[in-house]
Specification:
Largest sheet: 5 strands, parallel
Number of helices: 11
Shape: globular
Oligomer: single chain
Radius of gyration: 21 Å
Low-confidence stretches: 25-42, 186-201
Order of helices and strands: EEEHEHEHEHEHEHEHHHHH
């Protein structure tokens, strides 16, 4: 294929393998729509295996992941470990604040909108405690589904240092970790970009997202999707209950929760349906909520059938 393979090894650090292949850039045929587009990804190579929690504490590279959705926590934790870091997880800001209080973590990745204590409130508490006790500043990276809606600017204004958009791409996460918490004598490296085809818009899941989450392991991919299916079914019931009771606030909360986890696993159509519902509920437009609910039910049905087929394969 006219390519090359280069290997670099270092005792105690591991081996980096760089594969370079030349591919023609595919162009979108006229009239095929977004589903036939191509995009690029960056392969990321970890310079070491993830250390133990104790080792990470000693070198101050332990990462705290905060998110109220179990799928988001699981995926982020897998990504962080794949990049050579150890991590602990918290399901809300209150738990995260309790974990952080010992000054154990080198970096925090937090969702912005959570019950009990939001990512914004968590950041304010951490910054106040740092000033009160003389701790070094802990880098805080927001993980938001609304980076283009002004939330990114708010994250920085609230005292966070950076932000990531959901779904979190492994290459982007590597870039942020390497910037704010570089590994000692083992920087992360990026392999050359390669072109890959996006899935057809008629499939409810972007396989490329799932493959990145699972590092190409079909057993891990199946586990992620089965868990997503279970948690999503529970969240969908909460959403339907909120719609039935006419509670706009609960509709917004449930739709936002499902939207975030859907984007994490590449279920973009389901996420779009949730985004429409969240916007309609925020405006108090019940007709628009009802219409969005029809779209939501249709996408949930497609997703359920798709994941059930994968699980049975």
């Amino acid at each position: 294929m006219g390519g090359s393979v280069e290997m670099r090894s270092r005792t105690g650090a591991g081996t980096e393998v760089e594969v370079m292949l030349r591919f023609p850039i595919a162009r979108q045929p006229a009239g095929t729509g977004e589903g036939a587009a191509f995009d690029g990804t960056i392969g990321v190579v970890a310079a070491r295996p993830a250390p133990t929690i104790e080792q990470a504490e000693r070198e101050r590279t332990l990462v705290l992941i905060v998110d109220d959705h179990p799928i988001n926590r699981m995926v982020l934790a897998r990504q962080v470990r794949a990049l050579g870091y150890a991590c602990e997880v918290a399901q809300d800001g209150l738990v995260a604040l309790d974990l952080w209080s010992g000054d154990r973590f080198g970096l925090v990745v937090t969702d912005c909108n959570m019950p009990e204590l939001s990512g914004y409130q968590l950041t304010r508490h951490i910054r106040a405690a740092e000033e009160r006790h003389g701790h070094a500043r802990t880098p805080i990276i927001a993980c938001t589904a609304n980076a283009l809606g002004g939330e990114a600017e708010r994250c920085l204004a609230e005292g966070m240092d950076d932000y990531l958009s959901k779904p979190v791409e492994l290459a982007r996460l590597a870039e942020k970790l390497n910037r704010w918490l570089p590994l000692p004598e083992a920087p992360l490296t990026h392999a050359p970009a390669v072109m890959r085809a996006a899935l057809s818009r008629f499939e409810p899941l972007d396989r490329a997202v799932v493959e990145e989450i699972s590092a190409g392991n079909p057993v891990v991919a199946r586990e992620v999707l089965v868990r997503f299916h279970r948690y999503n079914s529970e969240d969908a019931q909460r959403l339907r209950g909120a719609v039935s009771s006419g509670d706009f606030d609960r509709v917004c909360e449930a739709a936002h929760r499902i939207r975030g986890s859907s984007r994490t696993v590449g279920a973009s159509d389901l996420a779009i349906a949730c985004e429409r519902m969240e916007a309609a509920a925020g405006k108090g437009d019940w007709d628009a909520v009802a219409q969005a609910m029809e779209d939501f039910d249709r996408e949930v049905g497609r997703m359920d059938r798709h994941i059930s087929g994968l699980a049975a394969a």
